[in-house]
Fold these 3 entries.
Entry 1:
Amino acid sequence: MTERPLGAQISHMLKDRGVDVIFGIPGVHNQEMYRGIEEAGITHVLARHEQGAGFMADGYARATGKPGVAYVITGPGLCNIITPMGQAYSDSVPMLVISSCLEQEELGMGRGRLHEMKNQEGAAGSVCDWSKTALTADACYELIHKALREFFAYGGRPKHIQIPISQLEKLARYPDQLEFARGEAVRRPEPMNVMYAATAIKKAKRPLIVFGGGAVEAAGPASWDADRSRCRIKEILKKTGAATFTTYAGRGVVPDDYALHFGSTLARPSSADVAAEADCVLVIGSRLSEVDLWRDDLGHAAKMIRVDVDEDTLNGHGGAFFSIPASAFWFLDALSEELGDIGLTSDWSAEEVSAQRTRWRREIEVERPGIIPVVDALKEALPADTMIYSDMTQFAYAAKEIYPMERPGHWHHPYGFGTLGYALPAAIGGKIGVGDQPVIAILGDYGFQYTMQELAVAVELELTLPIIIWDNGKLGEIEDSMVSAQIAPNAVIQRNPDFCKLAEAYGAEAARPTDLASFQKAIKDALAAKGPTIIHVKSDIALTSS
């Protein structure tokens, strides 16, 4: 086929493997990668900072289930995207970052080369699944093939490929066909393992199932057969009478109106008491990490069965008695078949679950006064299929536990790495990915200012995007933590700009609602607007409404 510079061939190869969008910023060191983007028929989204490009790629991947791809330059460009890579790593998000790099023999020579780093590959490798240097065209093609195949076969976690500038400039043939089919290496469970799990559940009187973010691929919009998977989950719950929890990332996998669903409340300390009452615990697609539980373990006394495609998760902490390496999609499919037509009645009751959820809601009301009424108003105002991106802000911390989710994979948050400034660029990437489907961003007044320059991208692309800024005029969560630790609050108060005038300066719409009714109207107006809308909400808005 036609010879082109390697930088151009990369875009053609990505396009042939389903990549439609690339996020990034061009520079003199990676300009050869931009030679083939338009020719390949790929849309490029120009971020205002490489951190924004990385979060956009993350948000796009979470919304679509497809890898998010970013192009960055040598040195500072790679450094700037390391934070989003760390976030994607902690939350198992498929992101491919491709950067240029200096010639290997030129490093450490004391020549003061532009964008020089001592160990660029190693720096990226500290926050991703793997980071490799492609010294030839064939090596570049093999690494891209390897990255995309691993995404499709094993799920998320970012990869980084860097190519020397001279190689990007060299003419190269298009790669020989490197075929792979989606799902060719996706793990199906061993029949004996499924039989073991089914037998344990059949014997149990109080079975408990915990669904994590890994179960979203079995029931979410990007799964191979989402309707079939959701039916399988409902069948399993109906057959077993199991009580359920979801992690924050797994919300929506279980319908919120399922009578025996305890919700996404594993972080409530007394959820350990609930887990202790179970006589069989099945955990599907969750690491049971610190940010899931905020304690050392689930609190269970019964034997735990864990299902995950990630060997590290199965071999990690959490107290698993029996581990099943498999994707959630195939395990749930096989488990439903293995359970057959049984109709078990468990000892869990809808009354005890409802009473416990009510107690936890009251706890949240006390811990975070004034937030729950706003969460409820938000739920009433949004269409059911809205995709939500939230930041590290107290509003989101409360909402993650009580906002009812009708479907999985529709609330995205920087769970593990916990990066401020995530929500705005991630929501931009998500909106690009889902098109006409409604998308909103929720940020704190402080976190918004980490990446507020990406508002220009939303304006430029005329994205309909409500951006809710929750303004308490300070780092409220840090202040509360300092007070709890008996530390005099220090450096937690900041002076904010006029967010509505800021929106105007960027060319966005703006609203400053003063009560819950005007808050809901502002959301609905923003969802009908052409372009983004800043909705500036003071944290006492619920008190004002009453």
Entry 2:
Amino acid sequence: MQEISTAAKNAVAKPVIYQMLPRLFANTCDHCVPDGDITQNGCGKLNDITPRVLDSLKQLGVTHVWYTGVIEHAHATDYSAYGITPDDPHVVKGKAGSPYAISDYYDIDPDVAVSVPDRMAEFEALIKRTHDAGMQVLLDFVPNHVARRYHSDAAPAGIEDFGQGDDTTCFFTPRNNFYYIPRQLFQPSIDIGSYIEFPAKASGNDCFTAFPGPNDWYETVKLNYGVDYGDGSRHFSPVPPVWFKMLHILRYWASKGIDGFRCDMVFMVPVEFWEWAIPQVKERYPNLIFIAEIYDVNRYREFIERGKFDYLYDKVNLYDTLRAVQCSRHSAATITDCWQRVDGIGSHMLNFLENHDEQRFASEQYAGDATRVLPSLVVSSMMSIGPFMIYAGQEVGEKAEDAEGFSGHDGRTTIFDYWSIPSLRRWLNGGKADGGKLAPVEKDLRALYAHILGLLNSEKAISQGEFFDLMYVNFSNPEFNPHRHYAFLRRYQDEVILVAVNFSDVAGELAVNIPPLALGMYGIREGQREATELISGRKMKVNVSSATPFRTPIAPWGAVAWKFSASQLSRSAAKTARKSSKK
């Protein structure tokens, strides 16, 4: 069983996060060309995320919108007419550039503004619209690296640029902002045209040479938090300058009224920084949430307990396991291992089936069929009280079939190119945000997502309840493969939900044993009672007993969530029980 923290028990809502890149999300160009520039392929704007769009996201069940790629980052488009220093396109990935190659931490990217001089005002208006729609705003914080060319023209007075005043003659000093490769010219194994950088700076993926390869993060420069990667020594006293600069950036964006940060690649920054910075930010903004992108299960507890993060990506644990189960590479029984690895911190895990780094669920490289999502969706979203996240287009089965330019045909939606997402164009329907151009199967899928996401906060057993893994599942159909099914209980006060999923294309009747331990812990009276299946809405009388399996039909690639009272038996069962007690 998972241990539920006191803070988690007191939580009212389970965060449901919708990740979107505005330049992709709101782009309606239907004739994009591979590697096209902004004039050819267009670009979505913050102003296109209208109250109508936001209301539709709210109706989908979303509680938080993560606006990705809105802080100014390197791109090939020239905005020098607006006083913005242009980037050299040879050290930019794609025409649109990576949202994680930040070129000005204090500004909004001009690509997503209708009026470039008013870009900050347009973002502030989007924050207000999002709040008015009843949702909260999350923003990226990219702490580990910056664009090859970093210069802020929007920083408050007195704020120095990163690298200003650095001693470029040495690899490391605690007072520097960057790491340098002295006396060496930056010369990656790609064509960088006339771009000159001397001495070379270390690249963002801890590439401490002047010769990064095409798969390195050559478009970024690693920031120096006081760790000498030459001898491994750590220099945190006095506090390194980068720490103060990053704390100021966090407070700057918090002052705009956002509600939280999704923090990029947190494990590449010393945990001591987070331990120092997050409490100082929360001292002024106590309701702000911090979400960590992290890929090492062995460091999860460290970043929660020391790093003070509210939530962590559970990518290498539950996401990777569900993907393997979905693609028939792992037994569904391995899902049990996932919650056991995070026992005691499960309420801090952020689960997802898609994000900008991963291949689309419906892509041929993953599941190949969006209509098979239900078992993975239900397990990922319902097995804990932690947040659940979806990526724009997931809810309408985006397949990511395009080869956009810098990004090829890889099952991912590009983050580097000016592009438009076909399924989202059909849903936006010229700004109506009514799904008017969606195919019937896409409409049905979005309705399914809306129903499941709605349950996450309408049912307290899911948003606040306890979890019990039903590891012992029997099958009345001998053709069923026990490695393709998983079941668990969620319980809040007198409400119990039995969840079971089917990772196979065989329908049948599932028989689930509820052990005496679960009955006793949750005060579940044995006997017959009325139950409602929350996904389909159907009702039936079920028998809850440690001696007799709980039987439920289940469709191919299906799921059920049977809700029943722990204490209240059906009238006939209660009458029988009273007669037995009198005897």
Entry 3:
Amino acid sequence: MNYTEISVAIPYHGRADFFKETLKTLLNQTCKNFEIVISDDSNNERDLAALDALVKEYASYGLKIRVVRTKPNLGPILNTKQAVDACKNDIVRILHTDDSLAPSTIELELEIFNKNPDTFFAFHNLSVFREKFIPNENGKWSDKTWVDNWLKDKNYINSIIPSCLVINKKVLTEVGFFNTEFEFMYDWEYQIRLFEYAYLNNKRVVEIEAGYVGWRISKMSESYAKSLLCYRDSRNIAKLMKKSYAKIGKKLGINKKSIKRFKRIFDNRIEQEASCDGANLKLPLRLYPRKIFHYIRDTFKYLGKKISKKRSYHTAKSVLKSAAPLFFDDKFLLYSQFPMYAKDVKITPSSDNIEKTAIVICGPIVEENNFTYETALLYKKFYKNQNVDIILSTFADTDETLLNDFRALGIDVVLSDKIRANGIDNINHKITLAKFGIDKADNLKCKYVLKTAADERFYNPDTVLFLINLLKQYPKTAKSELKNRVIACSKDSFIHRIYGICSDFLFAELSDIKKYWDVDFDNSDTNELNNISKKERFMKYSGDSYVLRHFLKNIKHNLKDDIKDSFEVYANYFVVIDKEQINLYCIKNSNKNSQYDFYFPNLMKECLFLDWFNLYSNRDKIKYPLSDFGSY
């Protein structure tokens, strides 16, 4: 049989902004032999009108689109079933309104069903994305591995989301459809039935490698949040496992030990998903003690006092808080706690007499735990009704819903496009975001600018006042062309890296920080760095060093490119503060308080205020021992 066309079944329930992006990926398909059937259960006039406008627009571009109206709030599964039933073709692919397809997806799917007309269903391994889906059209698929990989392993711990599923309509009559009472458009019982039926009836199933279907994750994605609920009722899934093994276990050589292993893997998956952004997924009570014990064992290596697994979560938590000392491998351990959310920070600034300052948050928005949003909310809380402007400088392809959350707080949002050439350590993106954010501070007529990164935050509300007072306490040297010094932070500012001041956290007067970021893009061939040693790469070549070198040229400093001159630069043009002085936390850093081990020579030694002050006071007598990389 020759399949000439495929149907795309789409359940619609509002969110036209996301759906427009999905329609664009359909418009860009290399194969045009498909129809689009949209089943709409929207519940308000605005959503209905938005869909009608989109359908009219994309039909004018040549897409074959039909809309099936139904009663409001039919529910995701019945809404999808209605779209599938209305499809005229035998091969149907399901697509959600916030997901994306690579340009050759439908062409590949038609090719698979035509080369193997007896294919029962095909499924893609999904590619997760937050901002923009990057396809990887490798053309790889297989009908050989699914039995071993899925019936023996993946079937009980991995879900195939509907957007990844392409079915022959025979599936509907022989196996049925999703459970309409389930909270999400997916349930394990249906997937198990699909694979079991195919196996027992010798039906062909095709697995397609990741790269074709993009599944959007965002805190606004209802399907993402609900999908995590699939992991909640692990006891029922364990029952499904036993039923499944009763049918096929002996044929595949699976036994009770296999079931035990799956339960253990499944518990790990529940713990993992419970901590995901937007999950709102509560752990089963039996897993709370296990989670806290893992936390103690793996994060703190707590061996000083053994904690019985019979102890409750609360007991374990109290021991972690109060038991001293914590030690491991002949070392004492300390840990710090930082509230995740702004509402839990109760301290306020000691003074409201702050000169006009901008805090510029640069980088892609960190959605996990709403980190960047909560950071902006914390700063607004600190500097409410004060002379401090908060600016978010991020990329133009950011989800508009996320941006509106920041705008609702009164944050100035500045957008810039990504550029093709990343440069060393993605520095070109950092340059772009910093420039746009600082220009906004200039427009707002700010005297000072604190440039920070979207993946870090400070918890001390007196930070801005502290930085301003530091500039007054340590004036510039006479020969400097700057108005004042630049304040940097110890985090990732390394003593042994030549011109190694980290560019993530910088504070200065407006004109000085504009000079700092008046930098051309890095167009060098970064592949050449593969030919040098790790030590030399660390000491001389980094995105931070690239920016600082250009800044030094801007202020007419004669670069000598050696460690002695680097010390001179730190002493003459900077003040370096400890991250602990402002309670700075960065989510990408190690859980260790410092990335380097202080008690033996290490290239990863950060520059502390103590180091900077000694350089500032008497740099000629300062020598730091060098070594290769140590433990960090």
